[in-house]
Amino acid sequence: MGSSLSVYLLDMAATRALVGSRNDQLLEVIRNSFSDDLARDDDYFSHAIKEGAPTAYEALHAVINGGPFSENQDHAFQYGYAYKPLCSLTGSSLDNNCFTPHRGDWLSVVDEGLKALGVTAVSVEDFSYSDLPDPLPYTFIPGCGEWTPDHIAQALEQFEAAKQAVDESGQAPSLDPEVVEAAMQCLGWMRHAAGRPGFGVIGFRS
User: Fold this and answer.
1) Among 25, 138, 157, residue whose Cα is nearest residue 77
2) What's the chain look like in SS3?
3) What is the average per-residue pLDDT within 171-184?
4) Is the pTM of the predicted complex or chain greater than 0.85?
5) Can you tell me the distance from the alpha carbon of 190 to that of 206, in angstroms, rounded to the nearest whole number?
6) pLDDT computed for residue 1 by the predictor
7) What whole-number distance in Å separates Cα of residue 31 and Cα of residue 42?
C-alpha cells in the first residue's frame, strides 16, 4: 500500500483561525457534510478508539473548541485527521494524481526535480511533517505542511528565472518525465494560489 497526498488551496489565516473558534454551527456542518467519512474513520481506527483514542467527531469537537486533547500521545493522530476536513470544507482540492498513491521517497525525488528547475522556496516533502496549528498536539501521521503565499511567490520567481536561463543557454536539466510531470503539477498549485491574496497550499500525507 502506498501513501497519499491530499492538497488544498485555501485562505491560510482564515482556516487556521477555525481552530479553537468554538463555532458550533461549523461543527454541525462538518458533522453532516462528512458523516460518511467520520464513520469510515471510526471503523478504520476502531482498535485505537477501543484503547481510548477519541472518535473522529470527538477529535473534531476538540479541534474546533481548542481542546481538551488527550494526554496520550498515541491519540494525537486523530486531531490531525480532524483538521483535514476543515481544510477540505473551506478550501478547494487540488489535482494530486502525481502523488496519490506514491511510494518510498517519491516526495524527496520530486523536490530534487524542483531544485533542478530552480525551485527551492517550497518542498513537497514538507507535507510529511507536522505543522498543525496551535494548540493541536504534534503527530507523525498524518503529515501536514503549508506553502505560504510568500514562499509560493518566491518559488514562482525562482522558476521563471531558471526558465529564462535555460532559454538563453539552451541547456535544460535532464529529468525523468514522471518527475517533470509532478513538478509541473506543483507549479500549477502555486499558480492557482498566486492569483488570490492570502491564499496558500496545505498538504496532508497519510
Assistant:
1) 138
2) CCECEEEEEEEHHHHHCCCCCCCHHHHHHHHHHCHHHHHHHHHHCHHHHHCCCCCHHHHHHHHHHCCCCCCCHHHCHHHHHHHHHHHHHHCEECCCCCCCCECCCHHHHHHHHHHHCCCCCCCHHHHHCECCCCCCCCCCCCEEEEECHHHHHHHHHHHHHHHHHHHHHCCCCCCCHHHHHHHHHHHHHHHHHHCCCCEEEEEEEC
3) 95
4) yes
5) 22
6) 62
7) 13
